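Quick one - inputs below.
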Amino acid sequence: MTPPLLDITGLEKRLPNGRVLYSNIDLLIAPGEFVAVMGESGIGKSTLLNIVAGLDGIDRGHVRFEDRELASMSDDATTLLRRDRMGFVFQAFHVLPHLDIEQNVGLPLLLQGLSRARIEARATAMLTAVGLAGRGRDFPAVLSGGELQRVAIARALIHGPALLLLDEPTGNLDPDTAARVLEVIDEQRRASGAATLLVTHSEVAAARADRVLTLRATGLAART
Ligand SMILES: Nc1ncnc2c1ncn2[C@@H]1O[C@H](COP(=O)(O)OP(=O)(O)O)[C@@H](O)[C@H]1O
Ligand SMILES: [Mg+2]
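Output:
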């Protein structure tokens, strides 16, 4: 059996005030697998993604990504891991307003130090893949919410990450636009082979996943 890409065992997370947010969280994600985690608002879904990305610490248990224990890594090492091996899409798009669309999409490759020509070629291909061919010179202000989210998807996958992290990616979109964005996510994560961890309270979004789990304070379980 292939080793898991992500291995979370016995995770406990406390808030700064000491309250236990959740404990006994176990989650294995295989390379290329698409897992959705559902749970009510405030249960800690965004916190879980931050933990996986090495942006937030844990109080018990372990989190291993590609066989590396995140807690044992330096901040610089987790920054590099995040930059090279992960991609993110958030509810609020997080597209940089002063960069044009192509520059936004190419950002992960710029951070990796690729040449301008290679970045341009990859960004053009990614924009075409998400249905935004010819929009590279536009600025975010003239794009719709659904278009901005497709920009975010292109940016999240341009560097070929092993894991795509999606935090309520359709939360700000009307149902038709959300359906189109979900379609693009599914196409592009398949094309790239990235494993995907989606947190959402949308049944429609979760329905695309290979597995749907429910996050509770007592653990993460298959949805019943
Ligand atoms: N930096 C923080 N300091 C204190 N409490 C926080 C912090 N970040 C999140 N929380 C609390 O942690 C809980 C989980 O938040 P979050 O992960 O955003 O939940 P969800 O994404 O499921 O809505 C909430 O009760 C929130 O108020
Ligand atoms: Mg959240």
